[in-house]
Amino acid sequence: MSNQSRYITHPSIVDKDKTTILVVDPSQEDLDQLTSHLQNTDVDYDVYLYDGDIGDLQWLNHISPNCDQTLIDDASQVSIMPTSTRYTAGTLLDHFGKITA
Fold this sequence. Notes:
Low-confidence stretches: none
Mean pLDDT: 84
């Protein structure tokens, strides 16, 4: 398996050539599970990670419309409409698995 998934963090922006997911305020547990999932899948993803404490809404508003899915931890203060999905701690992969490339 030759997985080419990658994490992209603020302030980076990459050309869209894979299924692109934005994950907002994930817990460390969610990140660990996501990393394991990405290492064991045949699907390549670009996963933008956004920490709400950064506060760069211009960057967030620039990347979010180009993402195939936006997943926001339910405890986050960040809100992106209309295509975002909120998830509770520990359930990130439940939603991630519903995304089709």
